[in-house]
Design brief:
single chain, Amidase signature (AS) enzymes, 13 strands, about 35% helix, two-stranded antiparallel ribbon, eleven-stranded mixed sheet, alpha/beta, about 15% strand
């Protein structure tokens, strides 16, 4: 829903493109308004690693001329965009959220950045992440703490923490994050956003890795679809990228008919943290919206086990331990203490154990596909808990609970299936609650159409009114 003020910074990308086409707004005007919001809020939210406003002004001015001549170069011409810092932008250092490393400075941008620039997107800069992306918060040894635009005492979620803060806070409509176990969808649930972890290979990466994906964090399904249509073009640098497909009409104007859809309702992850009852009720209510429209909703039994979750956590710890061990002793001390403890806990794990972990991950992949194959869509919580204090690195604070919060999200990274988040309600104290909608692999279109349908049927009580200040109130 647009902000009541209707200020340019609050508009969706699809609304901006329509306004450019009609001549009611220009990219220069929109960028100026977004900059006003950034300048007012960034000192508190802390979303950016690199903010490149002069380059953005040059891009917006060129876009304004193209729209005046009715010659846009692509679907997001003139639309403000941010990029997570672990996605290469030529000449911009990539510290991976940690003070322990000497940042790599790429000479070429990642595939999706090149696609955005070719399409005329106005790149505002690179957004922050926690150390090596291995925390579900906005806590970083390099960047400090990133905070929620809804309530600065609360977390953004992570590891796409800066992207999430930028999306909810009015730093333009389109933001790109990455996700290896929930890092797009967790900011989604704790910030009320609409996000998508695409099918594996849908969005090409220059560093593909088991479970890793890049995708949109936005305020509407139609914006997520618009951005996906740009960034999903294949690139030879990613040997896992999918063949080209036309995503330009991801969300056709005719309404989705959900009657007859087979939908699984997954309320027990089978592992990890207990499900908060407010989250459970909100997700069940969302499922009822589909059922009332004629969908066949069936409870889905848990399919991930505590052993699978433990093995996945150990596999990631060893992966990060190798990065940690590569640092000089003094550099290791600059890594976030929580991450130091997390990686050193597996110092004695041997190679055979890591191979067993890998086999367990493959078993999780198989179990996820088998459990969900009977359904067109699966509805579940994104996370079992709601937003926690911004200073906590994980939902339980400083304790070591492994990855106890990703039992609903991680399976779809391993299976490669698309999974989205969309706000489905609020707690009694006003925190956002995310619904995860997942689908069969490659059916990104089906998932986005379902999210779009739900956005239009969820009702006012589940629909965010974004915490974007009205014009003139940025500093109030």
């Amino acid at each position: 829903m647009p902000h009541p003020s209707g200020r340019p910074a609050s508009l969706t990308a699809t609304e901006l493109v329509a306004a450019y086409d009609s001549g009611h707004l220009s990219p220069v005007e929109v960028l100026a308004d977004v900059i006003d919001v950034i300048e007012a809020r960034e000192s508190e939210l802390n979303a950016f690693w690199q903010l490149d406003l002069e380059a953005a002004r040059v891009t917006a001015t060129a876009s304004e001329k193209r729209w005046r001549n009715r010659e846009p170069v692509g679907p997001v011409d003139g639309v403000p965009v941010t990029i997570k810092e672990n996605l290469a932008r030529a000449g911009v250092p990539m510290p991976a959220g940690t003070a322990g490393v000497e940042p790599v400075v790429p000479t070429r941008s990642s595939p999706l950045v090149e696609r955005i620039e070719e399409s005329g997107g106005v790149v505002l800069g690179s957004t922050v992440m926690p150390d090596w992306g291995m925390l579900s918060s906005g806590v970083s040894s390099l960047h400090g703490i990133t905070r929620s635009p809804w309530d600065p005492t609360l977390t953004t979620g992570g590891s796409s923490s800066g992207a999430g803060a930028a999306a909810a806070g009015g730093y333009g409509p389109l933001h790109v994050g990455t996700d290896i176990g929930g890092s797009i969808r967790l900011p989604g649930t704790w910030l009320g956003l609409t996000t998508l972890k695409p099918s594996a290979g849908r969005v090409p990466l220059d560093t593909p890795y088991l479970g890793r994906a890049a995708g949109p964090l936005t305020r509407s399904a139609r914006d997520a679809a618009l951005l996906l249509s740009v960034i999903s073009r294949p690139d030879p640098r990613d040997w896992t990228s999918l063949p080209p497909t036309d995503l330009g009409t991801v969300l056709p104007s005719e309404a989705l008919d959900v009657a007859g859809l087979r939908i699984g309702l997954h309320l027990d992850a089978g592992c990890g943290l207990a499900l908060d009852q407010e989250v459970c009720r909100a997700v069940a209510a969302a499922a009822a919206v589909f059922a009332d429209a004629g969908a066949e909703v069936t409870r889905l039994a848990p399919f991930m086990t505590p052993a699978m979750l433990r093995d996945l956590d150990e596999f990631w710890r060893v992966r990060s331990l190798t990065d940690f061990d590569a640092l000089a002793p003094e550099a290791r001390e600059r890594v976030l203490p929580f991450i130091q403890r997390w990686v050193l806990a597996v110092r004695d794990v041997d190679g055979r154990s890591v191979l067993r972990d890998y086999a367990s991950i493959m078993a999780l992949q198989q179990a996820t596909v088998a459990a969900t194959e009977a359904f067109d869509l699966v509805l579940s919580p994104v996370a079992p808990v709601t937003a926690f204090p911004a200073e906590w690195p994980m939902p339980w604070g400083e304790a070591d609970e492994g990855m106890a919060h990703i039992g609903f999200t991680a399976p779809y990274n391993m299976s490669g299936q698309p999974a989205a988040s969309v706000n489905c309600g609020f707690t009694t104290d006003g925190r956002t609650i995310g619904l995860q909608i997942s689908g069969r692999r490659f059916d990104d279109v089906g998932v986005l159409r379902a999210v779009d349908w739900y956005e239009r049927h969820r009702g006012a009580a589940a629909t965010p009114v974004w915490p974007i200040p009205e014009t003139g109130d940025e500093r109030g």
